[in-house]
């Protein structure tokens, strides 16, 4: 059970306004099936806003998001999730007292018929369904390198491992498109490497598309097939990482942030 039939994501002219501020201003974003796409830009550029539109949390004021045959801009978050779009958040959102395994089972909720954790009637069919989901969750834990922590409460795990459990939980929904908002924020060097490896392995094993918000250009260059750069809500560059990195408009935007 891997992500087959992954459609292209094509956002055009995305515009989001908050009171007097235009957070996204006519942004285009194309994510090829199975690619790892980095969305970068200085603080406040509109990256999280873009994710919020793609996942249905915010409604776009203008523009369209096509995911295969579906138009996402008119859909509520649960319908977008049902089409195979999963995300992680800038801040960790795990149930700290539940084990890693049970957190992953929550990630499979969309795919379960009887809400396996709460199934009061332990009928044979429910039991075998639960076994199947637990086996798949364990397999996904393996891809992202958290299998050894399955029995441990999420709250007891080191920060870097918790972030990878979050990645695993999003993958447990069997997404075709995965949105990762700053998955390595606040991590030390080894944790960043472990996360980068987990993201690459998950993509390779499952064949899904990934959009990654990330500040570290070196990591983007290592991981991403393509990059889209936002600055003040506008797309200022798009293309392969080595070309985007040398783009004068991109260099200016990042230098401006440091001064
Ligand atoms: N719900 C909101 N209400 C009002 N303004 C908002 C809201 N969400 C975002 N903004 C504003 O929109 C702009 C883009 O914010 P966004 O969070 O998308 O940036 P970002 O690129 O994710 O930045 P960061 O790198 O700091 O996470 C910012 O000026 C922000 O203050
Ligand atoms: Mg953000």
Automatic annotation (TrEMBL):
Keyword annotations = ATP-binding, Nucleotide-binding, Transport
Q: Name one GO molecular function term.
A: ATP hydrolysis activity
Pfam families attached to this UniProt entry: ABC_tran, BCA_ABC_TP_C
Do you know which InterPro entries this protein is assigned to? AAA+_ATPase, ABC_AA/LPS_Transport, ABC_transporter-like_ATP-bd, BCA_ABC_TP_C, P-loop_NTPase
Spell out the GO cellular component terms annotated for this protein, sorted alphabetically and separated by semicolons. plasma membrane
Q: Domain ABC transporter: where?
A: 9-257
Q: Where are the transmembrane segments?
A: none
Please verify whether the record's keywords include Oxidoreductase.
no
Q: What is this protein called?
A: Branched-chain amino acid transport system ATP-binding protein
- The species this protein was found in: Actinomadura namibiensis
């Amino acid at each position: 059970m891997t992500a087959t039939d992954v459609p292209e994501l094509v956002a055009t002219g995305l515009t989001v306004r908050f009171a007097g501020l235009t957070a996204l201003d006519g942004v285009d974003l194309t994510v090829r099936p199975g690619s790892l796409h980095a969305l970068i830009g200085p603080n406040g550029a509109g990256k999280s806003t873009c994710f919020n539109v793609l996942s249905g949390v915010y409604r776009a004021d203008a523009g369209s998001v096509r995911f295969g045959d579906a138009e996402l801009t008119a859909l509520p978050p649960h319908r977008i999730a049902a089409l195979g779009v999963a995300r992680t958040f800038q801040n960790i959102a795990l149930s700290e007292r539940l084990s890693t395994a049970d957190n992953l089972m929550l990630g499979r909720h969309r795919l379960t018929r009887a809400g396996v954790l709460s199934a009061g009637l332990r009928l044979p069919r429910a039991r075998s369904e639960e076994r199947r989901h637990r086996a798949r969750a364990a397999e996904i834990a393996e891809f992202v390198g958290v299998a050894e922590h399955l029995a441990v409460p999420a709250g007891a795990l080191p920060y870097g491992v918790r972030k990878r459990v979050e990645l695993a939980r999003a993958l447990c929904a069997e997404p075709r498109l995965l949105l990762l908002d700053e998955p390595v924020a606040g991590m030390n060097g080894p944790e960043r490497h472990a996360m980068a490896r987990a993201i690459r392995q998950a993509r390779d094993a499952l064949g899904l598309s990934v959009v990654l918000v990330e500040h570290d250009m070196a990591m983007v260059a290592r991981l991403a097939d393509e990059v889209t750069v936002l600055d003040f809500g506008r797309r200022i560059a798009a293309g392969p990482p080595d070309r985007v990195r040398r783009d004068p408009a991109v260099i200016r935007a990042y230098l401006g942030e440091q001064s």
